[in-house]
Prior knowledge:
The chain is mostly helical. About 65% of the residues lie in helices and about 0% in strands. The protein has one domain (about 10-110). Helix 2 (about 25-45) crosses helix 5. The protein is elongated and about 55 Å long.
Amino acid sequence: MAREPGSPLSPTAAMLERTARLSDESIGAQLQQLLDCWHFQIMTSSMGHSWNRQKVVEGFLHILGHCGVPLTEKEIAQLPQMEEDHMIACILEKMDETFRERQLAWPKTLNCY
């Protein structure tokens, strides 16, 4: 049965809804979208003439580090060499719940194309 707009959720239903929003799949899709947007913005700017994929992804990882994802310099150097799906999975493992909650706004704030 569908829930009426504005009707309260039970604590269990609210927890399940929140968990679904913060799933690896959901956050991974948002992270992939953010990476695609970042890559597009860099490659269509003047930096795109001098930056290769490795440098673009390293820049992205440095930004994630400044935002709270605990990445070491060694990881920042190694991650761009991986397939993107594997790289995203490795980044997701480093994200704590607080960081994930803050990032729910990513899709709403991206305006790449």
